[in-house]
Structure formats: C-alpha cells, structure tokens
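*** Protein under study ***
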Amino acid sequence: MSEMHVLLIHGITGSGPWHWQQWLAGQLREQGVRVDLPGLPDPDRPVLDRWLQVLRERLEAVPREAELVVAAHSCGVALWLHHAATIAGRDRRADRVLLVAPPALDWQHPDAQDITPYPTDAAALRRAAGITRLVVGTGDPYLSMYRAHALAADLQVEMDVILDGEHLNTDAGYGPWPSVLRWALYGSVPLNDRFDTDTYTAGPSQDRLRLV
C-alpha cells in the first residue's frame, strides 16, 4: 500500500486552532498519516502569485509514489482552481481533492489580490486530480446555493450540500467533523454535516439533486 500524504490548504486569515482543518490534521497524525498544513504567506492579505508558489513547492515535495489527498477551504479552493488551470498537467497530480466552501466568483476583498475571479476549467481540474468533490453549506454569506450549483456544473463535479453549514468554518461550528476524516482516510462520500446527519448531493447538472 502506498503512503498517504494529506495537504490542507487554508483560506484568507488561515485556519485558527479550532478550525476543522486543524482538527483533521491532528486526527490524521494520530493515525500515522503524513499531513502538511502550510501557513501561506501573509494570510490576512493573500497575493495569488505568492500563494501559488508555496502550494506548488509543497506539492513537489510529496513523493511520487505517495497517495496525495488535498482538502482546501474557502480562498484555498480558489487557489487550487488557479493552480489547476495554469499547470497544463505538468505538475504533481493529486489523487483526491475536496473543495470546501469556496467564495463566489465575484467575491471581493480589499486585501485579497487576484484570488477572484478564479478559473472554472473542468478539463484542467481533471488533469490536476483524479477525483474532485465540492462541499458547500446553505446560508453561506459568500456563496449562494444558486451559484454553488452553477459552479458544480461548470466544474463537472458532484457537490454535497450541508444544511445550515454556512461557510463550514469555526463560526459555523466546524471544528471536529467526522465525515471529512472518513473522506480523507477512505474517500467515503457523501460528506455529512458535523453531526453525521443526512446531506444533499448534486451531480454536475442541477437536475440531479438527491437526498442520500
């Protein structure tokens, strides 16, 4: 069995001590999984080129024989989409990628440079990873459900909708999140909420929304 390496990509302001990414990193390390949660440069004032450089350095550091699993949150999702669209399939390919609570394409922040708009290139996404999945929460102030469905359709990926999940961050109660741990370890889907209750899953088409 190949070694697993999990790369976690935070969003603007980083991942605080009670964030699900920090919890996930601790849980995985307890099980002997190699985890990388790099602090991206100046997280309160992200600059795309600087963040991309760090992401690609961390990807290249992963042994080629390792199973590479990536979980990105918020602006980290936008970073991954920029990465996927600009590597032309040349860089290290991930085996599985989870995109959690991205901002809308037209989201703007005075301290974020070039993070949005981000590419929505489905072919590039397939070149960057074997399997990609999107997870969003209803009530997210940065991404409406209409835009979330449109994004899933553009990326041609399945999307799990967490009811009342909002931005799936610490403010929304997302510290411990057993479902994301199962996904990281085993690829288990769909992603449920932090209480492991039912979620909605949508296919690339908005016509394929189903309760699972």
